[in-house]
C-alpha cells in the first residue's frame, strides 16, 4: 500500500503525552508506548494487534471488550493501559492451547453453537474461563449470573449457557482420575 | 418429521457450524480489525438541535491541531456527490451524508474531521465551531402528518412520504354483514436491533488503479452499486470486500452514508480513511432506528369470534430522511391477514418524516409490528365474545387442507399446519395446568397472565414492495448466487457473494452442496470473492438465505453433478440414462464394477480433453443465479402481488407475572411452536429463533429510543437503551414441526427473523391478561417497568389526589 507524504506528520503530535508501559500479555512481556488516556482495549487492539477483544459500547456495559487481569474478567474499555502495568493480561488469543487447537471451553462453544456473529464470543469465553476456574460445577443460575456481564444480541443466551455447562462437565471429566479397570 | 430426517444425508443433521472456529479463537475479521498502513480516522460534528439552519462552520481551530488533516462540510461533499438513494419516489426529500444548510435531527452529521487517531479526531470535532439558528421542529408522527406542522423538508410539499389506501375484497360489505366489531389504537415504540458491533467502514482509494476498496460491516442490497452512484464512479471502480465478518446486524447495518463519506474523503485526501461509530454515534447519528408505528385496527366478526374483515391504518414515523425504511410498510402486505382466514382487508399505509433519527430496515421489516396489531385484535375479539384466546385463533386459522392459500392482498401462502403446531405446544405446556398455575400465582398477590400469539414469518425475501409503493420502480428480480469450482486435485470450492452477520452461510452453502454431491460438507471450502468478482447477489435480508443461497448452491451443485455424469457416461461408453452417481463416483447401472472415481472424472475434465464428450467445456466450474421462487411479476393496479414465496409459522405461549408494587415482569415459562419447513442446520435455526425471542422480549419490555420534548434522544447509551442480558431471558422451550415448502429445494423456509415475529405480541398478550383483573389494558410497546408500576398504582389508589 502506498505511503502518503502525510505519514511523517502522523505520530509527531502527541509523543509528549506518551508513557512506556510493561504489560504481561498472554504470558509474554510486551512493552508499549501509550498516551495516558489510551484504554487497555485500544492498546491491545491497535498497538499489540490483538483484535479479539472488541469495542461494543466503550462505556462498560456490554462487556465485548472483556479480558482477564490476573484471571479476573474486566472491561478493557474502562481500564487505561497504564493501569495494567504489572498485571497479567489474558486475551482470547491466549486461550487456545496451540494454533488451530481449541480449549475445552472453545470446543464446547462450537459444539452447542454458543454464538452467531462472534462479536461477543471472546468475552463470553473469557468470562466462562474465569467462572470455571473458580467454580468447576456451576448451576444454571451461576452461569447466568456470570455471563450476564456480557451482552449478546444474536443468541438469546441459551446456547451460550449450554456451552458453559458442557465445558464444565467435560473439564470435570478431564480432571477425574482414570477409573480402575 | 421422520421423513425429513431420513431423506437427507447432511441436511437437518446436527452438524457444527464451521464459522464458529474462528470466532471462538478471537480470529473473526470484523471491520475494525482491518488495518491498512497510513489509515486516518473520522469523527463527526453533530447538530445539537432537532432542526436548525447552519449559519457558518469555523474549522480553523480544529485544523490548527497537530495530526488533524481535514474538516469536510456538507457543501463540499454535496457538490462532489449524488444524493443517497431513496426507496420511494420523493425526489425533494434529499439525503446526504453531511447536512447541507439545514440539519433535521439532533445528532445529524454537519461536518467530518479527519485526524491521525480517532481520539484526536474527536478532540478536534469539539473545536469545530458551528453557528446554528434553531428552526421549528416536529417529533410526533401524527402531528407531522397533520397539515400545518413544521415541514422537515421545506422543498417537499408536506411531511408525507407515502399515504396510500389499499382495499382488497368487499370490506364495507363484510363489515356491514358482521354483527360485531372491535377497534383499537396501538403504538409500536421506536426501537431497533442494536448490534453489539457498531457500524464501521474503511475506504481506500488507489488513484493508480482507480479503485476504491471498501471494508465495511454491512448488510445491504446494492451496497457497492449505491456507493458508486453516489461518488459518480463506474461500478467497476468500487470493490467491496465480502470477507469481512459482521458483528450482528439483523437488518440495520446499512451505513451507506458512512461509506460515501469515507470514500469521498479517501479520494480527496489520498490515504485510507476509517469511520468506526462509537455507541453514541451509533444510536444518535448512525441512522439505524427501527419502525415507530401508530396503528388503528378494526375487525368485524361473528358470534363465534370468526373475523370476516379488517381495517388497518399504520402510520410510520420514519425520521428525518427516507431511505429504504418506508418499504417496511409494504412487506407486511404479503402477510396482511397473518395466519388467519380474513376475507377482506383495507390497509392504509402512511409514512411521514419528523425531526428524529433516520430509520433503517429492522429484523422482520415491519412485519413484527403488524403481527402485534393483528394479535392484539384477536385477543380483543376473544374478550368481546367471552371466548378462550386459543379457541378464537383455532376458529380463524387457515386449515392445513386449504394450502396453497390465497390471501386478499394477492400473496399465496405455500404450506402450513397451524392447528397441528398449536396443539403440539398446548400438549407440551399442558395448557390447563398452565392456566391453573396462573390462577395460583394470582392468589399469591401477583398479577399473572398467559400470553398467546400466532403469526407468520414471510421468508425468501423478494423486493416486490418496491414496485408496489414506487411506480417508477420495476424491480422484479432479487437474486442470490453461488459458483462451484473443482480444482485439478479434486478439491471443491464454492463462492458466496455477500457478507454474513452470524447466520452461518458458509455452513449452509457447504451443506447444500455436500447433500447434492454426496460428499462430506467439511471437505468443501467456501469463500467470499469481492464485489467485482461476485455474481448477482443481494444480501441476507428478509430471511432469504436458506431459500436463496441454499437454492443457488443446490442448483450449481446439480449442474456439476450432471457434468460429472456426462463425463463418466462418455468415458464408460454407456448411455447417460444408464449412468449412476454415488458419493462422487459415476458407474454403470448395468455393471456396478464398471465405474469412474471422482479423481478420474476430475482428471478427465481438467486434463484429458480427448476423453470429454464432444463440445464439452473443460474444467469444472458451475454457477447458478437464482431468482426468487414465485417472484417475477409486477403488482396489479389495486396492489395485489405475490410478496415472498415461503411462510413459516410460530405459536408463542407464555406465563408471566408482574410484581404489583414494582411493575417488574418475570417470565415464568415460555414455549414456542415453530414450523419453518425443513431445517437445514438445527443449531443455526435454534440459535436464531432463541435470539429472535430475546430481541422480541427487549422490544416488548425494555428497549426504546425515547425523545424528550426538546427533540433530544434520551437513550444514547446502554445505560438508557436496555438490551436484555442473560438475566432477563428465560429458558425457551421450542416445539418443532416440519411442513416443507413446495417452492424450495429441500422444503426449507426462512428463519432469520423467527421468534421476533411473535414475541412482542405474545408478551403484550400476557401483560394484558395479567392486568385484566384490574380492568386495565396496555396498548403500546415497550411496556416499561416504571409505566406498569404507575398504571397499576393509579388503578389501585384512584382517590389519591395529584
Overview of the structural elements:
- The complex is a heterodimer of chains A (181) and B (802).
- Chain A has helices at residues 40-47, 104-112, 121-134, 140-147, 158-175; strands at 18-25, 28-35, 66-69, 72-75, 88-90.
- By secondary structure, chain A is of the alpha+beta class.
- Chain B has 802 residues and is of the alpha+beta class.
- Chain B folds into three domains: 8-27 and 479-626, 2-Layer Sandwich (Aldehyde Oxidoreductase, domain 4); 34-135 and 199-276, Alpha-Beta Complex (Aldehyde Oxidoreductase, domain 3); 293-464 and 634-796, Aldehyde oxidase/xanthine dehydrogenase, molybdopterin binding domain (Aldehyde Oxidoreductase, domain 4).
- Chain B has 21 helices and 29 strands.
- In chain B, helix 8 packs across helix 9 (256-269), helix 11 (367-385) packs across helix 12 and helix 13 (418-429) crosses helix 14.
- Chain B is globular.
- At the A-B interface, helix 2, helix 3, helix 4 and helix 5 of A face helix 2 and helix 19 of B.
Structure keywords:
heterodimer; A: 5-stranded mixed sheet; B: 802 residues; alpha+beta; Aldehyde Oxidoreductase, domain 4; 6-stranded mixed sheet; 28% helix; 23% strand; globular; disordered N terminus
Summarize the model shown:
The complex is a heterodimer of chains A (181) and B (802). In chain A, 31% of the residues lie in helices and 15% in strands. Chain A has 5 helices and 5 strands.
Map the helices and strands.
The complex is a heterodimer of chains A (181) and B (802).
Chain A: E1 18-25, E2 28-35, H1 40-47, E3 66-69, E4 72-75, E5 88-90, H2 104-112, H3 121-134, H4 140-147, H5 158-175
Parallel strand pairs in A: 1-5
Antiparallel strand pairs in A: 1-2, 3-4, 3-5
Helix pairs in contact in A: 2-5
Chain B: H1 2-7, H2 20-24, E1 40-46, E2 52-58, H3 60-63, E3 68-73, H4 74-80, E4 102-103, E5 109-115, H5 118-125, E6 129-134, H6 141-145, E7 160-168, H7 171-176, E8 180-188, E9 200-206, E10 211-216, H8 223-231, E11 238-240, H9 256-269, E12 273-276, H10 279-284, E13 293-301, E14 307-319, E15 344-353, H11 367-385, H12 389-396, E16 405-406, E17 412-413, H13 418-429, H14 431-443, E18 447-459, H15 465-469, E19 480-486, E20 492-495, H16 505-517, E21 524-527, H17 545-572, E22 579-582, E23 585-588, E24 591-596, H18 598-607, E25 621-626, E26 646-658, E27 665-675, H19 682-701, E28 733-736, H20 759-771, E29 780-781, H21 785-796
Amino acid at each position: 500500500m502506498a505511503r502518503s507524504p502525510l505519514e511523517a506528520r502522523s505520530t509527531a503530535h502527541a509523543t509528549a503525552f506518551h508513557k512506556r508501559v510493561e504489560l504481561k500479555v498472554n504470558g509474554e512481556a510486551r512493552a508499549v508506548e501509550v498516551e495516558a488516556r489510551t484504554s487497555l482495549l485500544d492498546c491491545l487492539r491497535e498497538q499489540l494487534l490483538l483484535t479479539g477483544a472488541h469495542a461494543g459500547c466503550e462505556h462498560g456495559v456490554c462487556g465485548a471488550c472483556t479480558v482477564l487481569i490476573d484471571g479476573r474478567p474486566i472491561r478493557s474499555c474502562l481500564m487505561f493501559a497504564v493501569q495494567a502495568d504489572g498485571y497479567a493480561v489474558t486475551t482470547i488469543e491466549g486461550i487456545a492451547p496451540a494454533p488451530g487447537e481449541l480449549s475445552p471451553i472453545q470446543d464446547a462453544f462450537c459444539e452447542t453453537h454458543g454464538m452467531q456473529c462472534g462479536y461477543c464470543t471472546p468475552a463470553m469465553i473469557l468470562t466462562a474461563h474465569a467462572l470455571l476456574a473458580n467454580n468447576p460445577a456451576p448451576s444454571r443460575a451461576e452461569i447466568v449470573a456470570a455471563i450476564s456481564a456480557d451482552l449478546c444480541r444474536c443468541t438469546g443466551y441459551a446456547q451460550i449457557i449450554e456451552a458453559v455447562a458442557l465445558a464444565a462437565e467435560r473439564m470435570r471429566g478431564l480432571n477425574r482420575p482414570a477409573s480402575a479397570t | 418429521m421422520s421423513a425429513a430426517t431420513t431423506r437427507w444425508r447432511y441436511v437437518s443433521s446436527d452438524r457444527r457450524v464451521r464459522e464458529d472456529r474462528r470466532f471462538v479463537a478471537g480470529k473473526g475479521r470484523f471491520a475494525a480489525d482491518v488495518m491498512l498502513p497510513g489509515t486516518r480516522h473520522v469523527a463527526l460534528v453533530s447538530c445539537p438541535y432537532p432542526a436548525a439552519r447552519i449559519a457558518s462552520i469555523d474549522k480553523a481551530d480544529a485544523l490548527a491541531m497537530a495530526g488533524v488533516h481535514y474538516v469536510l462540510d456538507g457543501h463540499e461533499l454535496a457538490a462532489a456527490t449524488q444524493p443517497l438513494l431513496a426507496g420511494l419516489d420523493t425526489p425533494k426529500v434529499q439525503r446526504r451524508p453531511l447536512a447541507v444548510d439545514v440539519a433535521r435531527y439532533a445528532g445529524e452529521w454537519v461536518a467530518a474531521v479527519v485526524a491521525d487517531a480517532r481520539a484526536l479526531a474527536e478532540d478536534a470535532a469539539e473545536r469545530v465551531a458551528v453557528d446554528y439558528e434553531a428552526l421549528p421542529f416536529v417529533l410526533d408522527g401524527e402531528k407531522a402528518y397533520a397539515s400545518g406542522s413544521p415541514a422537515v423538508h421545506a422543498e417537499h410539499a408536506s411531511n408525507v412520504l407515502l399515504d396510500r389506501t389499499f382495499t382488497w375484497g368487499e370490506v364495507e360489505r363484510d363489515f356491514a354483514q358482521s354483527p360485531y366489531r372491535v377497534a383499537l389504537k396501538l403504538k409500536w415504540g421506536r426501537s431497533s436491533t442494536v448490534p453489539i458491533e457498531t457500524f464501521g467502514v474503511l475506504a481506500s482509494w488507489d488513484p493508480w488503479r482507480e479503485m476504491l476498496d471498501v471494508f465495511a460491516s454491512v448488510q445491504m442490497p446494492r451496497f457497492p452499486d449505491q456507493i458508486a452512484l453516489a461518488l459518480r464512479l463506474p461500478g467497476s471502480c468500487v470493490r467491496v470486500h465480502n470477507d469481512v465478518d459482521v458483528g450482528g446486524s439483523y437488518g440495520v447495518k446499512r451505513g451507506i452514508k458512512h461509506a460515501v463519506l469515507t470514500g469521498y474523503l479517501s479520494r480527496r485526501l489520498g490515504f485510507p480513511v476509517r469511520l468506526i461509530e462509537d455507541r453514541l454515534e451509533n444510536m444518535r447519528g448512525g441512522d439505524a432506528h427501527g419502525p415507530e408505528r401508530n396503528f388503528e385496527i378494526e375487525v368485524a366478526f361473528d358470534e363465534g369470534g370468526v373475523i370476516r374483515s379488517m381495517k388497518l391504518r399504520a402510520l410510520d414515523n420514519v425520521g428525518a430522511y427516507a431511505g429504504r425504511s418506508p418499504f417496511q410498510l409494504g412487506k407486511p402486505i404479503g402477510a396482511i391477514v397473518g395466519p388467519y382466514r380474513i376475507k377482506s382487508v383495507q390497509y392504509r399505509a402512511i409514512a411521514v418524516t419528523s425531526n428524529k433519527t433516520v430509520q433503517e430496515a429492522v429484523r422482520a421489516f415491519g412485519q413484527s409490528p403488524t403481527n402485534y396489531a393483528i394479535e392484539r385484535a384477536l385477543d380483543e375479539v376473544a374478550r368481546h365474545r367471552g371466548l378462550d384466546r386459543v379457541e378464537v385463533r383455532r376458529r380463524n386459522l387457515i386449515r392445513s387442507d386449504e394450502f396453497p392459500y390465497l390471501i386478499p392482498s394477492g400473496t399465496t401462502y405455500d404450506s402450513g399446519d397451524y392447528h397441528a403446531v398449536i396443539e403440539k405446544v398446548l400438549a407440551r405446556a399442558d395448557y390447563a395446568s398452565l392456566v391453573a398455575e396462573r390462577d395460583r400465582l394470582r392468589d399469591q398477590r401477583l398479577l399473572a397472565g398467559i400470553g398467546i400469539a400466532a403469526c407468520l414469518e414471510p421468508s425468501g425475501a423478494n423486493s416486490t414492495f418496491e414496485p408496489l409503493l414506487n411506480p417508477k420502480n420495476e424491480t422484479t428480480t432479487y437474486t442470490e448466487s453461488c459458483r462451484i469450482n473443482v480444482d485439478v486435485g479434486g478439491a471443491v470450492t464454492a463462492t458466496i457473494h455477500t457478507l454474513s452477520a452470524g447466520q452461518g452461510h458458509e455452513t449452509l452453502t457447504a451443506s447444500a452442496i455436500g447433500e447434492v454431491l454426496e460428499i462430506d460438507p467439511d471437505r468443501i471450502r467456501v469463500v467470499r470473492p469481492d464485489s467485482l468478482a461476485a455474481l448477482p447477489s443481494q444480501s441476507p435480508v428478509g430471511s432469504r438465505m436458506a431459500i436463496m443461497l441454499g437454492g443457488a448452491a443446490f442448483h450449481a451443485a446439480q449442474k456439476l453433478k450432471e457434468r460429472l455424469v456426462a463425463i463418466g457416461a462418455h468415458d464408460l461408453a454407456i448411455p447417460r440414462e444408464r449412468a449412476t452417481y454415488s458419493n462422487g463416483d459415476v458407474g454403470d447401472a448395468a455393471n456396478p464394477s464398471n465405474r469412474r472415481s471422482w479423481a478420474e472424472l476430475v482428471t478427465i475434465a481438467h486434463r484429458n480433453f480427448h476423453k470429454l464428450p464432444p463440445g464439452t467445456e473443460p474444467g469444472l466450474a458451475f454457477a447458478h443465479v437464482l431468482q426468487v421462487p414465485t417472484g417475477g411479476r409486477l403488482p396489479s393496479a389495486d396492489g395485489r402481488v405475490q410478496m415472498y414465496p415461503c411462510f413459516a409459522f410460530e405459536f408463542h405461549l407464555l406465563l408471566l407475572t408482574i410484581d404489583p408494587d414494582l411493575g417488574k415482569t418475570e417470565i415464568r415459562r415460555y414455549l414456542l411452536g415453530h414450523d419453518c419447513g425443513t431445517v437445514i442446520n438445527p443449531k443455526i435455526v435454534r440459535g436464531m429463533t432463541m435470539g429472535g425471542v430475546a430481541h422480541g422480549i427487549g422490544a416488548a419490555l425494555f428497549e426504546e429510543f425515547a425523545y424528550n420534548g426538546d427533540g433530544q434522544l434520551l437513550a444514547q447509551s446502554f445505560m438508557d437503551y436496555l438490551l436484555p442480558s442473560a438475566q432477563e431471558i428465560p429458558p425457551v422451550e421450542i416445539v418443532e414441526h416440519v411442513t416443507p415448502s413446495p417452492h424450495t429445494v429441500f422444503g426449507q423456509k426462512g428463519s432469520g427473523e423467527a421468534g421476533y415475529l411473535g414475541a412482542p405480541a405474545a408478551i403484550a398478550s400476557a401483560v394484558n391478561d395479567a392486568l385484566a383483573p384490574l380492568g386495565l389494558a396496555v396498548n403500546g410497546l415497550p411496556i416499561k417497568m416504571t409505566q406498569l408500576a404507575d398504571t397499576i398504582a393509579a388503578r389501585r389508589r384512584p382517590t389519591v389526589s395529584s
